Amino acid sequence: MLFPGTYILRDDLHIATPPPHPSETHVLAPNPLETTPRPVTAGTKVSLLRLDTQSLSPIITASPSLSLKGASSAENYSEDGPCEIHESTENNSGSSEDSGTSSIDSVKQVLSNGSTPLAFGEGNYMLSHGVKDSGKKKKPKNNIAKSSSSFISRCIMHENLAKRLNERNLNGYFAFANINRAFEWFDLSSPQKAEYLTKILFTKSHCLCHDINEVTKSQNHIDIVMGFSTGEIIWYEPISQKYTRMNKKGIINQHAISEIRWIPGSESLFLAAHIDGSLVIYDKEKDDAVFMSEGSEKSTSDSPSNHESSNVTLLHVDKSVRSKNQKFNPVSLWKLSNQRINAFAFSPDCRHLAMVCEGGTLRNFSSYYGGFICVCWSPDGKYILTGGQDDLVSIWSFAESRIVARCQGHQSWVTAVRFDPWRCDESNYRFGSVGEDCRLLLWDFSVGILHRPKAKTVRLRGSVCSWYPGLYRAETSGSKIRSNSVVSVHDNKEDTMDHPAEPRAITATLPPVMVQ
């Protein structure tokens, strides 16, 4: 008998790391004192997909009064002044015979938590339904198995792929995994779950991240976007084995992509974080063109030297979502930082975006030490979790704009944090974290059980760097992210808040309930 909160190992899948491509230059002994960052080559992510609509996790309704005091999410600045960016929860134009209406409506209802936020780009007729070139949604156009592109080295398909797809359990899970230069597709409902359905090997580009569109998924169609070390993006449909290559040769942004996610509720828009500190919104149905910044070329830094040496740049809108030039990608582009953006996450109500970067900031919040690596929201949108180079998991209150507690238990960098939606209610939360110490920790959190430390304690860090090239200790300082687009917001200091790292002596601590 399993008690509530008991976890059992259901599947154990070993994914081999692919060897370097023969044409790829392999550095056997990299110089540890080298100051120039090496190309990003390591990236691993696993995603599970269940095609039936009953697989959605439980949702805790957030309070409608939640707002961020003085530290708002990224904002879109137009000629009329700052206005909040709203992520789309509405259908983009065009109907797809592969995606059922009930599935899309179900996802929209869950994403909206009982209310429907405004669509992304609301008010810009160039992003409205009537401007699309065709009433039918576009699909990837190139066959990946027969591709002659030098970007793809090889595509290996299971010899009985069609038969396995027709005979599989419809309630079972698919698993998609990217590891270095490989992308693999597994069927976890099959007895031969270790046999991949499809394995794609890329030539010199390494797949660092991917995301699955929960809106358009159906038994006959799955939309996946992948981000690469070259800055390029592939829109991939595994059932038809078709793909489209975007940002080809870095025509929009040539820097590697550290995180990529579909905008909640959207069929075609997705957000990519490049390691140069840029957030870019792409449309899978649009072609690419040479990008020219539409924002002001003048920096809002106090001086040119400050602009170049600062860990965090002020928010610069290079292309606004309200731009009338929406024929080609990108839909929108923001420059948020001079350093790498490691992760971002959409709030449950789809109205806010939390972003963590190598400069040690969670938007306006400073880390205790070093940079942040991962971020996620609580199911009700009240709290934000971050993990990073300080070996700590930090809990932040979104409504109160402050740190709630630091969770001590890891002995190396924290690389991923997630809430367990089935073990969260209005006052109690369960979340897990994994780190480079190869440990999984579970935590139970409630505001009522927190306590302030009675005295200062000294803790020796045991972290080491492994698979994050270019990550290094950065001096943490309170910083403010503002816009330096065509609208001048230089003097709006009262609208933002800086949060220097609070001393350990005055911050509540939380121990793990399980270490594995």
TrEMBL record:
Low complexity bias locations: 90-105
Assigned GO CC terms: cell division site; cell tip; nucleus
Keywords of this entry: Repeat, WD repeat
SUPFAM superfamilies xrefs: WD40 repeat-like (SSF50978)
WD repeat placement: 365-406
Region (Disordered): 68-105
Record InterPro entries: WD40/YVTN_repeat-like_dom_sf, WD40_repeat_dom_sf, WD40_rpt, WD_repeat_creC_regulators
Pfam family, one: WD40
Source superkingdom: Eukaryota
Any one biological process term the GO annotation gives: carbon catabolite repression of transcription
Homology family: Belongs to the WD repeat creC family.
Subunit structure: Interacts with creB.
PANTHER family assigned: AT02583P, WD REPEAT PROTEIN
Purpose of the protein: Component of the regulatory network controlling carbon source utilization through ubiquitination and deubiquitination involving creA, creB, creC, creD and acrB. Required to prevent the proteolysis of the CreB deubiquitinating enzyme in the absence of carbon catabolite repression. CreB deubiquitinating enzyme stabilized in a complex with the CreC leads to the expression of genes such as those in the proline and quinate pathways.
UniProt protein name: Putative catabolite repression protein creC
Organism whose genome encodes this protein: Erysiphe neolycopersici
